[in-house]
Specification:
By secondary structure, this protein is α/β, with parallel strands linked by helices. Helices cover 30% and strands 22% of the residues.
Length: 399
């Protein structure tokens, strides 16, 4: 049995940040177990067609949190990154408008603007209608029938490939009500409603590498504490052991809770909660032709297309060409001859009962000094900057 004070499962952004914070605080008794032969998790990159391709999808370093940026730059200095003001769009087939949809209705043809304005004026959030619980009814209640039908509902059907009413609305509560007056004013003035984008308004991307490079550098900084090629198949909560071989005074789990083959020491309530956790799998597919656009990425609600998003790497990765698509595995054609990568665990799904289920899991595990961290440890769709922030805080809180 190999014993340490902190046993960390997973060498993605969460596990690597937590481990490096331990090292900076003078802690030496820790070990990181990684199932793959390299670090990075969903943020890994591969060289494809002479340039980096992020095999886990689109990942970027948001500029908003100076503490996070400073931490990341301590592994890959700022002069090795380019900074971009985000350009992202929504392709409706007949029209392409800037993201977010509700802020840029003014970019649509005049007749469509009128249709959207009428729908927004009738939206339940603007007429005082009681808020519905079902996702399929909540979206038009919040944004109007036209935004729902033209974008939000088809896009989410593609993204999740499930009955949308299995999905909760709690994670969308931060969306502001779409004001009829503000939208009308936006259409008259031909300008966006919002002054800035809701996320990744500006971002960093490495000049010479894919986004995965910084996580490799982070892993190299703790190379003596890294163990590769070890999939955590058994997590014993009572003994605080992994695979019956590694033991920790504390276990920090950044891996998917549903990915363990065995979890001895859990009760019936936790078993039932685990059964409620849902995730999607995503296929990243590379295309060598360079698209005629200045967009960094574009969303596609058209259900005739297999992919829901395209990332144009030539527009943020100097010296590269082509682009890559993201598709739910259930929609992807894997026999079209294109290079592809499958990510079994891509997005945790915010199902109706997820909040209660993951809260129970985290609470029961914490009682036994096993702590969930990051996108999969906390079953939340955290971007990498949020994951780094949470891992930094946890390390500081625990030491």
């Amino acid at each position: 049995m190999e014993s340490v004070k902190y046993l960390i499962i997973g060498a993605g952004p969460a596990g690597l940040t937590f481990a490096n914070m331990l090292k900076r605080r003078g802690e030496t008794s820790f070990l990181v177990l990684e199932a793959e032969d390299e670090a990075g998790g969903l943020c890994r990159s591969k060289e494809v067609d002479g340039a980096p391709l992020d095999i886990g999808g689109g990942h970027f370093l948001d500029v908003r949190d100076p503490e996070v940026v400073e931490f990341v730059f301590s592994f890959m200095p700022e002069d090795e990154w380019d900074r971009y003001d985000r350009i992202s769009r929504i392709d409706l087939g007949h029209s392409v408008i800037d993201y977010p949809f509700e802020s840029n209705i003014w970019q649509l043809p005049e007749d469509e603007q009128i249709g959207h304005l009428l729908a927004i004026s009738r939206a339940g959030c603007n007429t005082g209608e009681e808020k519905p619980a079902e996702f399929s009814r909540w979206i038009p209640w919040k944004l109007g029938e036209k935004v729902a039908e033209d974008y939000m509902l088809p896009y989410n059907r593609k993204m999740w490939c499930m009955d949308l009413d299995r999905i909760g609305t709690y994670w969308l509560e931060k969306l502001p009500d779409v004001s009829f007056e503000d939208t009308l004013r936006s259409c008259i003035r031909h300008s966006s409603i919002y002054e800035s984008l809701p996320g990744h308004a500006s971002f960093y991307y490495p000049k010479k590498h894919g986004y995965g490079k910084v996580w490799l550098d982070m892993a190299d900084a703790i190379r003596d504490n890294m163990v590769y090629g070890v999939k955590a198949s058994e997590l014993d909560l009572d003994e605080r052991t992994v695979n019956g071989h590694y033991k920790g005074e504390y276990i920090i789990n950044t891996a998917p809770w549903t990915g363990f083959e065995k979890i001895p020491g859990i009760g019936d309530d936790m078993k039932k909660a685990l059964e409620k956790l849902v995730h999607t799998s995503v296929v990243i597919k590379y295309f060598d032709e360079t698209a005629d656009t200045d967009s960094h990425w574009t969303y596609f609600p058209d259900e005739e297309k297999e992919y829901h998003r395209i990332l144009y790497r030539a527009n943020f990765c100097p010296g590269s060409k082509g682009y890559w698509t993201e598709s739910n595995l259930k929609r992807a054609d894997l026999n079209d001859g294109r290079p592809y990568y499958i990510n079994e665990y891509a997005y945790p799904v915010n199902t109706v009962d997820k909040r209660e289920a993951i809260a129970l899991i985290l609470d029961e595990a914490k009682k036994k000094s096993v702590i969930g961290l990051g996108r999969w440890g906390q079953w939340e769709h955290f971007n990498s900057d949020v994951t780094v922030k949470r891992a930094m805080k946890l390390a500081n809180d625990m030491i």
